[in-house]
Amino acid sequence: MQESGAIAVAVGDPEHQSGWITMYAPGDTSDIVIPSIFLAKSEYRALLYLSKIVDTPMMILLQLDDFITWPLLDILMIIFVSPSIMMIFIYISWQVRQRRRKQQEVASVDAVSRLLVKQFLTEKVGENEAEECAICLEDYVNGEELRVLPCKHDFHTFCVDAWLTTQKKFCPICKRDITFKTKGAHIQHGQEAPLLIEP
Ligand SMILES: [Zn+2]
Ligand SMILES: [Zn+2]
Question: Short name of one Pfam family for this protein (predicted)?
Fold first, then answer.
Protein backbone atom coordinates (compact mmCIF):
# COMPACT_ATOMS: atom_id res chain seq x y z
CA MET A 1 0.00 0.00 0.00
CA GLN A 2 2.89 2.34 0.79
CA GLU A 3 4.52 1.64 -2.58
CA SER A 4 1.26 2.39 -4.38
CA GLY A 5 1.18 5.85 -2.74
CA ALA A 6 -1.20 5.33 0.18
CA ILE A 7 -0.71 7.64 3.14
CA ALA A 8 -2.44 5.28 5.59
CA VAL A 9 -4.11 1.85 5.67
CA ALA A 10 -7.36 0.84 7.34
CA VAL A 11 -7.83 -2.92 7.71
CA GLY A 12 -11.46 -3.96 8.09
CA ASP A 13 -12.54 -7.16 9.78
CA PRO A 14 -15.10 -8.91 7.57
CA GLU A 15 -16.04 -11.57 10.15
CA HIS A 16 -16.17 -10.41 13.77
CA GLN A 17 -19.03 -8.18 14.86
CA SER A 18 -17.06 -6.33 17.50
CA GLY A 19 -13.75 -6.42 19.32
CA TRP A 20 -10.26 -5.42 18.42
CA ILE A 21 -7.27 -7.27 17.10
CA THR A 22 -3.76 -5.97 17.75
CA MET A 23 -2.05 -6.17 14.37
CA TYR A 24 1.59 -7.02 14.03
CA ALA A 25 3.82 -8.25 11.22
CA PRO A 26 6.02 -11.32 11.58
CA GLY A 27 8.70 -9.86 9.29
CA ASP A 28 10.81 -6.68 9.28
CA THR A 29 8.61 -3.56 9.08
CA SER A 30 11.27 -0.92 9.65
CA ASP A 31 10.83 0.44 6.12
CA ILE A 32 7.07 1.01 6.62
CA VAL A 33 6.39 4.65 7.47
CA ILE A 34 2.63 5.00 6.87
CA PRO A 35 0.29 4.29 9.80
CA SER A 36 -2.34 1.56 9.78
CA ILE A 37 -5.46 0.90 11.83
CA PHE A 38 -7.63 -2.11 12.51
CA LEU A 39 -11.41 -1.75 12.22
CA ALA A 40 -14.00 -4.12 13.58
CA LYS A 41 -16.76 -5.28 11.22
CA SER A 42 -19.34 -2.66 12.27
CA GLU A 43 -16.90 0.25 11.96
CA TYR A 44 -15.61 -1.07 8.67
CA ARG A 45 -19.18 -1.27 7.32
CA ALA A 46 -20.01 2.25 8.56
CA LEU A 47 -16.92 3.64 6.87
CA LEU A 48 -17.70 1.82 3.65
CA TYR A 49 -21.28 3.13 3.73
CA LEU A 50 -20.14 6.73 4.35
CA SER A 51 -17.61 6.56 1.53
CA LYS A 52 -20.44 5.63 -0.87
CA ILE A 53 -22.95 8.32 0.12
CA VAL A 54 -20.48 11.22 0.42
CA ASP A 55 -19.17 12.69 -2.83
CA THR A 56 -16.30 14.67 -1.38
CA PRO A 57 -13.17 12.91 -0.05
CA MET A 58 -13.41 11.92 3.62
CA MET A 59 -10.74 12.63 6.18
CA ILE A 60 -10.15 9.88 8.69
CA LEU A 61 -8.14 10.77 11.78
CA LEU A 62 -5.99 7.91 13.09
CA GLN A 63 -5.27 8.21 16.79
CA LEU A 64 -2.53 6.34 18.61
CA ASP A 65 -3.49 4.38 21.70
CA ASP A 66 -0.55 4.54 24.09
CA PHE A 67 -1.44 1.31 25.86
CA ILE A 68 -1.43 -0.85 22.73
CA THR A 69 1.67 0.59 21.09
CA TRP A 70 3.62 -2.54 21.88
CA PRO A 71 1.85 -5.29 19.94
CA LEU A 72 3.23 -8.16 22.00
CA LEU A 73 1.98 -6.71 25.28
CA ASP A 74 -1.36 -8.47 25.28
CA ILE A 75 0.18 -11.74 24.18
CA LEU A 76 2.69 -11.55 27.03
CA MET A 77 -0.12 -10.70 29.45
CA ILE A 78 -1.97 -13.87 28.47
CA ILE A 79 1.14 -16.07 28.58
CA PHE A 80 2.71 -14.89 31.85
CA VAL A 81 0.48 -12.68 33.96
CA SER A 82 -2.79 -14.63 33.82
CA PRO A 83 -1.36 -18.02 34.92
CA SER A 84 0.61 -16.30 37.71
CA ILE A 85 -2.50 -14.61 39.07
CA MET A 86 -4.38 -17.90 38.83
CA MET A 87 -1.59 -19.77 40.68
CA ILE A 88 -1.49 -17.13 43.44
CA PHE A 89 -5.27 -17.32 43.78
CA ILE A 90 -5.22 -21.15 43.97
CA TYR A 91 -2.37 -21.07 46.52
CA ILE A 92 -4.13 -18.54 48.78
CA SER A 93 -7.45 -20.42 48.71
CA TRP A 94 -5.60 -23.68 49.47
CA GLN A 95 -3.87 -22.03 52.45
CA VAL A 96 -7.17 -20.67 53.76
CA ARG A 97 -8.81 -24.08 53.43
CA GLN A 98 -5.88 -25.80 55.19
CA ARG A 99 -6.02 -23.31 58.07
CA ARG A 100 -9.78 -23.68 58.41
CA ARG A 101 -9.48 -27.48 58.43
CA LYS A 102 -6.71 -27.28 61.03
CA GLN A 103 -8.89 -25.06 63.23
CA GLN A 104 -11.72 -27.59 63.03
CA GLU A 105 -9.38 -30.44 63.96
CA VAL A 106 -7.91 -28.93 67.12
CA ALA A 107 -9.55 -27.89 70.38
CA SER A 108 -9.46 -24.31 71.63
CA VAL A 109 -7.26 -23.46 74.62
CA ASP A 110 -10.44 -22.36 76.38
CA ALA A 111 -12.14 -25.76 75.90
CA VAL A 112 -9.04 -27.61 77.09
CA SER A 113 -8.64 -25.44 80.18
CA ARG A 114 -12.20 -26.31 81.23
CA LEU A 115 -11.34 -30.03 81.40
CA LEU A 116 -10.79 -31.71 84.76
CA VAL A 117 -7.40 -31.71 86.45
CA LYS A 118 -6.37 -34.15 89.18
CA GLN A 119 -3.27 -34.91 91.15
CA PHE A 120 -1.59 -38.29 90.76
CA LEU A 121 -1.24 -39.89 94.16
CA THR A 122 0.49 -43.27 94.34
CA GLU A 123 -1.57 -44.46 97.27
CA LYS A 124 -4.89 -43.69 95.52
CA VAL A 125 -4.27 -45.49 92.21
CA GLY A 126 -7.15 -47.83 91.36
CA GLU A 127 -6.81 -51.25 89.77
CA ASN A 128 -7.57 -50.21 86.19
CA GLU A 129 -6.04 -46.76 86.38
CA ALA A 130 -3.06 -45.86 84.24
CA GLU A 131 0.25 -45.20 85.93
CA GLU A 132 1.98 -43.76 82.91
CA CYS A 133 1.24 -41.07 80.34
CA ALA A 134 0.29 -42.63 76.99
CA ILE A 135 1.73 -39.64 75.12
CA CYS A 136 5.27 -39.38 76.50
CA LEU A 137 5.29 -42.95 77.95
CA GLU A 138 6.80 -41.68 81.22
CA ASP A 139 5.59 -43.07 84.54
CA TYR A 140 3.54 -40.68 86.62
CA VAL A 141 5.41 -39.22 89.58
CA ASN A 142 3.60 -38.87 92.90
CA GLY A 143 1.89 -35.47 93.13
CA GLU A 144 2.06 -34.79 89.39
CA GLU A 145 -0.79 -32.84 87.76
CA LEU A 146 -2.88 -34.87 85.30
CA ARG A 147 -5.57 -33.80 82.85
CA VAL A 148 -8.66 -36.04 82.84
CA LEU A 149 -10.53 -36.12 79.53
CA PRO A 150 -14.33 -36.68 79.34
CA CYS A 151 -13.61 -40.32 78.46
CA LYS A 152 -11.82 -40.69 81.85
CA HIS A 153 -8.40 -41.22 80.23
CA ASP A 154 -5.69 -39.18 81.92
CA PHE A 155 -2.36 -37.78 80.72
CA HIS A 156 0.24 -35.26 81.84
CA THR A 157 -1.44 -31.84 81.62
CA PHE A 158 1.34 -30.37 79.45
CA CYS A 159 1.43 -33.46 77.16
CA VAL A 160 -2.32 -33.65 76.44
CA ASP A 161 -2.88 -29.88 76.31
CA ALA A 162 -0.25 -29.59 73.58
CA TRP A 163 -1.77 -32.54 71.72
CA LEU A 164 -5.36 -31.21 71.88
CA THR A 165 -4.56 -27.63 70.91
CA THR A 166 -2.06 -28.30 68.12
CA GLN A 167 -2.70 -31.83 66.77
CA LYS A 168 -6.20 -33.30 67.24
CA LYS A 169 -9.14 -32.65 69.55
CA PHE A 170 -9.52 -36.39 70.15
CA CYS A 171 -8.34 -38.47 73.09
CA PRO A 172 -5.06 -40.10 71.95
CA ILE A 173 -6.22 -43.46 73.34
CA CYS A 174 -9.92 -43.84 72.52
CA LYS A 175 -10.29 -41.10 69.85
CA ARG A 176 -13.28 -39.52 71.57
CA ASP A 177 -13.90 -35.85 70.70
CA ILE A 178 -13.25 -33.79 73.83
CA THR A 179 -15.31 -30.84 72.54
CA PHE A 180 -18.39 -33.01 72.10
CA LYS A 181 -21.21 -31.80 74.36
CA THR A 182 -21.64 -34.46 77.03
CA LYS A 183 -25.18 -33.64 78.20
CA GLY A 184 -28.29 -33.00 76.11
CA ALA A 185 -26.31 -33.26 72.92
CA HIS A 186 -28.08 -33.95 69.69
CA ILE A 187 -26.83 -37.23 68.29
CA GLN A 188 -26.69 -37.32 64.54
CA HIS A 189 -27.05 -40.46 62.51
CA GLY A 190 -23.80 -42.37 62.25
CA GLN A 191 -22.19 -40.49 65.10
CA GLU A 192 -20.88 -42.20 68.16
CA ALA A 193 -23.03 -41.62 71.24
CA PRO A 194 -21.37 -39.16 73.62
CA LEU A 195 -20.21 -40.38 76.96
CA LEU A 196 -22.36 -39.04 79.77
CA ILE A 197 -20.36 -37.74 82.67
CA GLU A 198 -21.98 -37.35 86.02
CA PRO A 199 -20.47 -34.69 88.24
ZN1 LIG B 1 3.25 -37.20 79.33
ZN1 LIG C 1 -10.02 -41.60 75.92
Answer: zf-RING_2
> Burial, 90: exposed, middle or buried (Cβ in 10 Å; 0-12, 13-18, 19+)?
exposed
Instruction: Output the CA 97–ligand 2 centroid distance in Å.
Output: 29
Q: Look at the chain and report how many structural domains it folds into.
A: 2
Q: In this predicted model, what pLDDT tens digit does every residue of 122-151 receive, in sequence order?
A: 888 877 888 899 999 999 999 999 999 999
What CATH number corresponds to the domain at position 117? 3.30.40.10
Is residue 197 included in any domain, yes or no?
no
Q: How far is the centre of ligand 2, averaged over its atoms, from the C-alpha of 154 (Å)?
A: 8
List, in order, residues 6 or more apart from 47 with CB less than 8 Å away. Answer: 10, 12, 39, 60
Residues bordering ligand 2, an ion, CB closer than 5 Å? 151, 153, 171, 173-174
Which of the pair, 73 or 86, is modelled with greater confidence? 86
With a cut of 80, say whether residue 167 has pLDDT above it: yes
